């Protein structure tokens, strides 16, 4: 998701802190269908009716905030914000017609709309959960505080709306007059609306200057709560057509629908590479004495020797990896996707990885590690933001039949299992990786080699698929970010590249692989659903989707994070 500079005050800080929530709005069926230009008119009419009630709630909140503001300039600024909303309400019918739509019929309000409007009304009236505000706002400071709280509850809605519509506008052809929602999108991307959103944030910054740390914490909670209510508001919009999101809803467990999720571990799930962590365990732990005072059965090098050896192994690995990439990418680029050429190139990586592992075994750096130390290190591993939460939601989702498989070059499956133990039942997580050979809970220095190359990963991937029930609808998603994941990414129904590995992209493009941001890919897929008439996933040969966070994957597969 792209960035947006909204200043350095509290409004800008809060937007930067909670901006990741925007993906859960962007990936709603409402916005994906709207961006694709095929959102049904009835769904749009339903949204417009709900939105009018939100606008009335904003106008009322501004009215109460104006009464609370102490400074005349602040009162005037809030009054102008209220006038903007009131003008929008007066011109709303003509705007809807200008966008090319009929006025919506009277409808009932959704629970999400009611919750949102109640939240705005309560905040502007000084009824804030966990905050002591007198029944009568006696002092000017008490009133100003409530005005700031109100602006804190309103600000994220406008910023989120401006941000998401700019994300969508970037996908549209400016010369395409056939997109029925283009005028609506352009309206919320206008300089006029952007200026309105900025004025709210600017006023929030002004009203917050004199607040205490605790009161600023209240604004943060209100801001975040408003973001979540906005997510719920758009997630609750009814969609009458087939939609490609969330992916879990396209699979019907009643007819055997099953989702198989595969992912790499190092630097896909985690923030650090596990090989360096295992080496660090070896370096910082000392041989422990037995009760009789003798040294452990498997003596190891000194920490200094281990550090020196590991540094040399790491430097050699990096140098040879870069040489391998360079030797492949200096050849002529493929004009179209070349699977055969890619497989031939990846054979070089297979030889390289196996040779590197053999050097590690011969060096002895993995000799004498205690299994309990490894498990403790696994429990402390730092994961990518959102990864564990996503795994937990998948495992606890009773409406989805899903299996999770981790395919990794990691030298130690126990490290992975220990790291993932806090995410749920480890038995439900299928870990496929190498293992460290042990005697009496201490590593011998040998690696039990199972996955050392892209081809071996692909073989493990296919073996898992061949062993599943053939009946029913099956979908496979592979999530990875390294060269070793390329073949699995291409083989899965949906291949998602995590992060922005320049090496993976460079190698992929060398053999004609296209990398498409997931959101724009979903918008294109949504158009395809209507135009071609199918909602199941067909792989576009040589096309992979890219994401920058696990929140995007969560939003795509499961929908709202709430």
TrEMBL record:
Record-level GO cellular component terms: cytosol
A GO biological-process term: thiamine metabolic process
Highest taxon of the lineage: Eukaryota
CDD domains in the record: TenA_C_AtTH2-like
Gene3D superfamilies tied to this protein: HAD superfamily/HAD-like, Heme oxygenase-like
Membrane-spanning parts: none
Start and end residues of each Thiaminase-2/PQQC domain: 29-125, 149-236
PANTHER family noted in UniProt: AMINOPYRIMIDINE AMINOHYDROLASE, MITOCHONDRIAL ISOFORM X1-RELATED, BIFUNCTIONAL TH2 PROTEIN
Name of the protein this chain belongs to: Thiaminase-2/PQQC domain-containing protein
Organism of derivation: Gossypium mustelinum (Cotton)
UniProt lineage: Eukaryota, Viridiplantae, Streptophyta, Embryophyta, Tracheophyta
């Amino acid at each position: 998701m792209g960035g947006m500079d909204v200043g350095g005050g509290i409004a800008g800080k809060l937007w930067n802190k909670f901006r990741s929530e925007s993906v859960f709005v962007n990936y709603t069926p409402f916005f994906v269908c709207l961006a694709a230009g095929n959102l049904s008119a009835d769904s749009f009419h339903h949204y417009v009716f709900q939105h009018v009630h939100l606008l009335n709630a904003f106008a009322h909140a501004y009215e109460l905030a104006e009464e609370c503001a102490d400074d005349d300039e602040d009162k005037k600024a809030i009054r102008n914000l209220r006038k903007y909303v009131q003008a929008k309400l007066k011109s709303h019918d003509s705007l809807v017609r200008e966008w090319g739509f009929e006025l919506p019929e009277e409808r009932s309000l959704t629970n999400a709309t009611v919750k949102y409007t109640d939240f705005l009304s309560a905040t502007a009236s000084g009824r804030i959960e966990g905050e002591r505000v007198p029944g009568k706002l006696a002092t000017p400071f008490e009133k100003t505080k409530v005005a700031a709280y109100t602006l804190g509850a309103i600000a994220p809605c406008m910023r989120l709306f401006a941000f998401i519509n700019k994300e969508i506008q970037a996908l549209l052809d400016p010369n395409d007059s056939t997109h029925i929602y283009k005028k609506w999108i352009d309206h919320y991307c206008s300089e006029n609306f952007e200026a309105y959103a900025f004025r709210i944030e600017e006023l929030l910054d002004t009203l917050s200057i004199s607040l205490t740390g605790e009161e600023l914490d209240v604004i943060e909670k209100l801001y975040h709560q408003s973001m979540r209510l906005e997510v719920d508001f758009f997630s609750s919009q009814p969609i009458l057509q087939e939609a490609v999101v969330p992916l879990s809803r396209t699979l019907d467990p009643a007819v055997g629908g099953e989702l198989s999720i595969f992912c790499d571990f190092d630097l896909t799930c985690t923030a650090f590479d596990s090989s360096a962590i295992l080496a660090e365990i070896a370096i910082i732990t000392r041989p422990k004495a037995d009760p009789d005072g003798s040294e452990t059965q498997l003596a190891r090098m000194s920490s200094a020797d281990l550090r020196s050896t590991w540094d040399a192994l790491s430097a050699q690995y990096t140098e040879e990896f870069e040489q391998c990439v360079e030797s492949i990418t200096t050849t002529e680029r493929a004009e179209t996707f070349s699977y055969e050429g890619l497989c031939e190139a990846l054979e070089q990586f297979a030889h390289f990885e196996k040779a590197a592992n053999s050097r590690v075994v011969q060096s002895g750096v993995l000799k004498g590690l205690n299994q309990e130390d490894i498990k403790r290190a696994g429990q402390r591993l730092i994961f990518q933001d959102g990864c564990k939460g996503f795994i937990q939601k998948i495992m606890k989702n009773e409406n989805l039949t899903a299996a999770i498989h981790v395919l990794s070059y990691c030298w130690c499956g126990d490290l992975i299992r220990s790291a993932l133990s806090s995410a749920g039942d480890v038995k439900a997580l299928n870990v496929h990786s190498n293992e460290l050979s042990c005697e009496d809970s201490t590593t011998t220095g040998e690696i039990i080699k199972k996955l050392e190359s892209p081809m071996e990963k692909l073989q493990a991937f296919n073996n898992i698929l061949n062993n599943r029930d053939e009946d029913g609808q099956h979908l496979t998603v592979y999530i990875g970010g390294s060269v070793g994941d390329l073949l699995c990414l291409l083989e899965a129904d949906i291949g998602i590249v995590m992060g922005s590995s320049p090496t993976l992209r460079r190698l992929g493009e060398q053999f004609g692989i296209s990398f498409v941001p997931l959101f724009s890919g979903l918008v294109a897929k949504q158009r395809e659903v209507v135009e071609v008439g199918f909602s199941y996933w067909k792989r576009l040969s040589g096309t992979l989707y890219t994401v920058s966070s696990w929140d995007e994957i969560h939003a795509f597969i499961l929908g709202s994070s709430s």
